[in-house]
Amino acid sequence: MSGEIYKTLSHRINTWVYPPGQRLTEQEISDEFKVSRSPVREALNMLVEASLMDKMEHKGYAVRHVDIREINELYDTRLVLELAVIDIVCKNGMDESLRSHLTQRWQQLYDALPNMAEQAALEDERFHEILAEAAQNRVMQRMLKDIDQQIHFVRLSDITDPERLKTTCLDHLAILDAIGRRDREAAASSIQRNIEWGKESGYCHQGGAGPCVLYYLRIAYGWFSVEGALCRKNIGTRQQRDISRI
Predict the structure, then answer these.
(1) Which of 93, 196, 200, 244 gives a 20 to 30 Å CA spacing to 29?
(2) What pTM value is reported for the model?
(3) pLDDT single digits (tens) 62-74
Protein backbone atom coordinates (compact mmCIF):
# COMPACT_ATOMS: atom_id res chain seq x y z
CA MET A 1 0.00 0.00 0.00
CA SER A 2 2.86 2.40 0.79
CA GLY A 3 4.10 1.97 -2.79
CA GLU A 4 0.76 3.02 -4.24
CA ILE A 5 0.60 6.06 -1.95
CA TYR A 6 4.17 6.99 -2.89
CA LYS A 7 3.38 6.73 -6.61
CA THR A 8 0.29 8.94 -6.28
CA LEU A 9 1.98 11.59 -4.15
CA SER A 10 5.15 11.69 -6.27
CA HIS A 11 3.00 12.21 -9.39
CA ARG A 12 1.22 15.11 -7.70
CA ILE A 13 4.55 16.66 -6.74
CA ASN A 14 6.12 16.22 -10.18
CA THR A 15 3.10 17.78 -11.90
CA TRP A 16 2.86 20.58 -9.31
CA VAL A 17 -0.55 19.59 -8.05
CA TYR A 18 1.39 19.93 -4.80
CA PRO A 19 3.54 23.06 -5.33
CA PRO A 20 6.88 23.67 -3.58
CA GLY A 21 6.30 24.38 0.10
CA GLN A 22 2.96 22.53 0.26
CA ARG A 23 2.64 20.91 3.67
CA LEU A 24 1.29 17.41 4.20
CA THR A 25 0.55 15.51 7.38
CA GLU A 26 0.27 11.79 8.01
CA GLN A 27 -3.30 12.28 9.21
CA GLU A 28 -4.65 14.03 6.11
CA ILE A 29 -3.03 11.50 3.77
CA SER A 30 -4.27 8.68 5.97
CA ASP A 31 -7.80 10.07 5.80
CA GLU A 32 -7.66 10.47 2.02
CA PHE A 33 -6.45 6.93 1.31
CA LYS A 34 -8.45 5.42 4.18
CA VAL A 35 -5.47 3.57 5.63
CA SER A 36 -3.56 3.58 8.89
CA ARG A 37 -0.65 5.96 9.41
CA SER A 38 1.97 3.22 9.04
CA PRO A 39 1.94 2.90 5.20
CA VAL A 40 1.50 6.68 4.92
CA ARG A 41 4.60 7.24 7.05
CA GLU A 42 6.54 4.79 4.89
CA ALA A 43 5.44 6.55 1.69
CA LEU A 44 6.32 10.00 3.04
CA ASN A 45 9.76 8.80 4.13
CA MET A 46 10.26 7.35 0.65
CA LEU A 47 9.47 10.79 -0.77
CA VAL A 48 12.06 12.32 1.57
CA GLU A 49 14.65 9.78 0.42
CA ALA A 50 13.78 10.60 -3.21
CA SER A 51 14.46 14.31 -2.46
CA LEU A 52 10.87 15.23 -3.25
CA MET A 53 9.89 16.26 0.29
CA ASP A 54 11.48 17.58 3.47
CA LYS A 55 10.59 16.31 6.92
CA MET A 56 10.12 19.11 9.44
CA GLU A 57 10.27 18.41 13.14
CA HIS A 58 6.81 18.73 14.74
CA LYS A 59 5.45 20.23 11.49
CA GLY A 60 4.92 17.22 9.26
CA TYR A 61 6.27 17.18 5.71
CA ALA A 62 6.65 19.79 2.97
CA VAL A 63 7.31 19.56 -0.76
CA ARG A 64 10.88 20.61 -1.44
CA HIS A 65 11.51 24.07 -2.82
CA VAL A 66 12.93 24.33 -6.32
CA ASP A 67 16.72 24.41 -6.08
CA ILE A 68 18.10 25.94 -9.29
CA ARG A 69 21.65 24.85 -8.54
CA GLU A 70 20.52 21.28 -7.97
CA ILE A 71 18.50 21.29 -11.21
CA ASN A 72 21.61 22.39 -13.11
CA GLU A 73 23.69 19.71 -11.40
CA LEU A 74 21.10 17.06 -12.28
CA TYR A 75 21.25 18.12 -15.93
CA ASP A 76 25.06 17.97 -15.85
CA THR A 77 24.93 14.46 -14.38
CA ARG A 78 22.30 13.42 -16.89
CA LEU A 79 24.55 14.58 -19.71
CA VAL A 80 27.47 12.47 -18.45
CA LEU A 81 25.23 9.39 -18.22
CA GLU A 82 23.59 9.89 -21.61
CA LEU A 83 26.98 10.34 -23.29
CA ALA A 84 27.97 7.00 -21.76
CA VAL A 85 24.71 5.49 -23.06
CA ILE A 86 25.45 6.78 -26.56
CA ASP A 87 28.96 5.34 -26.41
CA ILE A 88 27.59 1.89 -25.55
CA VAL A 89 24.78 1.98 -28.13
CA CYS A 90 27.13 3.08 -30.92
CA LYS A 91 29.58 0.35 -29.95
CA ASN A 92 27.04 -2.48 -29.67
CA GLY A 93 24.46 -1.23 -32.13
CA MET A 94 20.71 -0.75 -31.81
CA ASP A 95 17.93 -3.01 -32.99
CA GLU A 96 17.30 -1.79 -36.53
CA SER A 97 13.52 -2.13 -36.34
CA LEU A 98 13.49 0.00 -33.18
CA ARG A 99 15.79 2.61 -34.71
CA SER A 100 13.64 2.69 -37.84
CA HIS A 101 10.46 3.10 -35.77
CA LEU A 102 11.94 6.00 -33.79
CA THR A 103 13.23 7.66 -36.95
CA GLN A 104 9.78 7.40 -38.55
CA ARG A 105 8.06 8.84 -35.49
CA TRP A 106 10.34 11.87 -35.16
CA GLN A 107 10.20 12.48 -38.90
CA GLN A 108 6.40 12.50 -38.61
CA LEU A 109 6.57 15.08 -35.82
CA TYR A 110 8.92 17.20 -37.91
CA ASP A 111 6.76 16.96 -41.06
CA ALA A 112 3.66 17.99 -39.07
CA LEU A 113 5.19 21.29 -37.96
CA PRO A 114 4.11 23.96 -37.15
CA ASN A 115 1.40 21.79 -35.59
CA MET A 116 2.45 20.65 -32.14
CA ALA A 117 2.19 17.08 -30.91
CA GLU A 118 -0.13 16.87 -27.90
CA GLN A 119 2.54 15.38 -25.63
CA ALA A 120 5.77 16.41 -27.32
CA ALA A 121 7.69 16.76 -24.06
CA LEU A 122 6.63 13.29 -22.91
CA GLU A 123 7.64 11.84 -26.27
CA ASP A 124 11.04 13.47 -25.84
CA GLU A 125 11.34 11.93 -22.37
CA ARG A 126 10.42 8.49 -23.73
CA PHE A 127 12.98 8.82 -26.55
CA HIS A 128 15.80 9.20 -24.05
CA GLU A 129 14.44 6.34 -21.95
CA ILE A 130 14.53 4.05 -25.01
CA LEU A 131 18.16 4.99 -25.68
CA ALA A 132 19.02 4.07 -22.08
CA GLU A 133 17.20 0.75 -22.44
CA ALA A 134 19.08 0.04 -25.68
CA ALA A 135 22.38 0.32 -23.80
CA GLN A 136 21.21 -2.60 -21.60
CA ASN A 137 22.91 -1.19 -18.52
CA ARG A 138 20.46 -1.45 -15.64
CA VAL A 139 22.48 0.76 -13.29
CA MET A 140 22.51 3.61 -15.82
CA GLN A 141 18.79 3.11 -16.42
CA ARG A 142 18.03 3.42 -12.71
CA MET A 143 20.21 6.50 -12.32
CA LEU A 144 18.67 8.22 -15.33
CA LYS A 145 15.16 7.32 -14.20
CA ASP A 146 15.85 8.88 -10.81
CA ILE A 147 17.18 12.05 -12.44
CA ASP A 148 14.23 12.17 -14.85
CA GLN A 149 11.84 12.04 -11.91
CA GLN A 150 13.51 15.02 -10.28
CA ILE A 151 13.58 17.16 -13.44
CA HIS A 152 10.25 15.94 -14.84
CA PHE A 153 8.52 19.28 -14.38
CA VAL A 154 11.35 21.17 -16.10
CA ARG A 155 11.22 18.78 -19.04
CA LEU A 156 7.45 19.25 -19.35
CA SER A 157 8.08 22.99 -19.66
CA ASP A 158 10.82 22.51 -22.26
CA ILE A 159 9.03 21.90 -25.58
CA THR A 160 6.27 24.50 -25.67
CA ASP A 161 6.52 25.93 -29.19
CA PRO A 162 7.04 24.71 -32.78
CA GLU A 163 10.58 26.09 -33.04
CA ARG A 164 11.73 24.16 -29.98
CA LEU A 165 10.04 20.99 -31.25
CA LYS A 166 11.74 21.48 -34.63
CA THR A 167 15.14 21.63 -32.92
CA THR A 168 14.32 18.53 -30.87
CA CYS A 169 13.20 16.59 -33.96
CA LEU A 170 16.36 17.46 -35.85
CA ASP A 171 18.55 16.52 -32.87
CA HIS A 172 16.80 13.17 -32.42
CA LEU A 173 16.97 12.34 -36.11
CA ALA A 174 20.68 13.21 -36.13
CA ILE A 175 21.26 10.99 -33.08
CA LEU A 176 19.45 8.05 -34.69
CA ASP A 177 21.31 8.51 -37.97
CA ALA A 178 24.66 8.60 -36.18
CA ILE A 179 23.78 5.47 -34.18
CA GLY A 180 22.94 3.69 -37.43
CA ARG A 181 26.38 4.60 -38.78
CA ARG A 182 28.07 3.74 -35.43
CA ASP A 183 29.43 7.30 -35.41
CA ARG A 184 30.04 7.95 -31.71
CA GLU A 185 31.38 11.46 -32.17
CA ALA A 186 28.40 12.68 -34.20
CA ALA A 187 25.88 11.00 -31.89
CA ALA A 188 27.57 12.42 -28.79
CA SER A 189 27.64 15.92 -30.28
CA SER A 190 23.93 15.78 -31.11
CA ILE A 191 22.84 14.48 -27.71
CA GLN A 192 24.99 17.00 -25.88
CA ARG A 193 23.43 19.84 -27.89
CA ASN A 194 19.96 18.41 -27.24
CA ILE A 195 20.38 18.14 -23.46
CA GLU A 196 22.18 21.45 -22.98
CA TRP A 197 19.52 23.28 -25.00
CA GLY A 198 16.81 21.74 -22.84
CA LYS A 199 18.64 22.80 -19.70
CA GLU A 200 19.08 26.40 -20.84
CA SER A 201 15.56 26.81 -22.19
CA GLY A 202 14.03 25.63 -18.93
CA TYR A 203 16.27 27.38 -16.42
CA CYS A 204 18.75 30.19 -16.85
CA HIS A 205 22.22 30.06 -15.32
CA GLN A 206 21.67 33.21 -13.27
CA GLY A 207 19.52 31.23 -10.87
CA GLY A 208 15.95 32.02 -11.92
CA ALA A 209 13.14 30.37 -13.79
CA GLY A 210 13.49 30.41 -17.55
CA PRO A 211 10.75 31.65 -19.87
CA CYS A 212 9.55 28.14 -20.72
CA VAL A 213 8.93 27.33 -17.05
CA LEU A 214 7.06 30.58 -16.45
CA TYR A 215 4.97 30.07 -19.58
CA TYR A 216 4.10 26.50 -18.60
CA LEU A 217 3.04 27.49 -15.09
CA ARG A 218 0.81 30.29 -16.31
CA ILE A 219 -0.89 28.26 -19.03
CA ALA A 220 -1.18 24.87 -17.34
CA TYR A 221 -1.78 25.83 -13.73
CA GLY A 222 -2.89 29.47 -13.69
CA TRP A 223 0.17 30.69 -11.75
CA PHE A 224 1.13 34.34 -11.65
CA SER A 225 3.96 36.48 -10.30
CA VAL A 226 3.67 38.32 -6.98
CA GLU A 227 6.72 40.29 -5.84
CA GLY A 228 9.13 37.84 -7.45
CA ALA A 229 7.31 34.75 -6.23
CA LEU A 230 5.14 32.38 -8.22
CA CYS A 231 1.67 31.91 -6.75
CA ARG A 232 -1.43 30.12 -7.91
CA LYS A 233 -4.91 31.56 -8.19
CA ASN A 234 -7.53 30.68 -5.60
CA ILE A 235 -5.14 29.76 -2.80
CA GLY A 236 -4.81 31.30 0.62
CA THR A 237 -2.24 33.82 1.82
CA ARG A 238 -0.47 31.23 3.96
CA GLN A 239 -0.07 28.89 0.99
CA GLN A 240 1.27 31.75 -1.10
CA ARG A 241 3.97 32.37 1.49
CA ASP A 242 4.92 28.68 1.38
CA ILE A 243 5.46 28.62 -2.39
CA SER A 244 9.09 28.63 -3.55
CA ARG A 245 10.61 31.77 -4.99
CA ILE A 246 12.13 30.66 -8.26
Answers:
(1) 244
(2) 0.69
(3) 998 777 888 889 9
